[in-house]
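Why do we care about 3D structure at all? Because function follows from shape, and shape follows, mostly, from sequence. That is the central idea of this module. The next example makes it concrete: a single protein chain, its amino acid sequence, and then its structure expressed as tokens.
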Amino acid sequence: MRAILCVLLLSASGCRGEAPPTVASAKSLPDWKSAFEYVIEVEADAIRVRFSVADGFHVYSQGEAVGKPLQLQSAEDSAFLIEGVRYPEGVTKDLPIGRSVIVEGEGRVEATLARREDARDDRVRGVFRYQVCTDEACDRPRTDAFEVEPEPES
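And the structure:
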């Protein structure tokens, strides 16, 4: 049980015969889930992902070679293709893993929608991929599937 605890907490302190990590040390791990929030908005011919990254965290943008950058894609069964995706520019920052292209704070991913000729409904289906990191560590890349119906034009 002791070796499993060491691996789960990414800590070697309990693996060398020392006292195992305490619950308090587990709480010092980053809260990945609350570090990144996003909302997907779909209109008749556009899709937008507005996101917010908590202080002390970042996500990767296009041009990143080590981490997984933001990615927005349509699913095969989507009534619409997601085209011309525009990602936030990001800034280049030297991190312990090397030079990275990151986005901090708030940002948007925007694209146009093109209706497929063989569409059987009005649903936009796709995936949104992101990876949340601090300067020292990263959460695993996440790929969230979504399904949204466009707002009718006014």
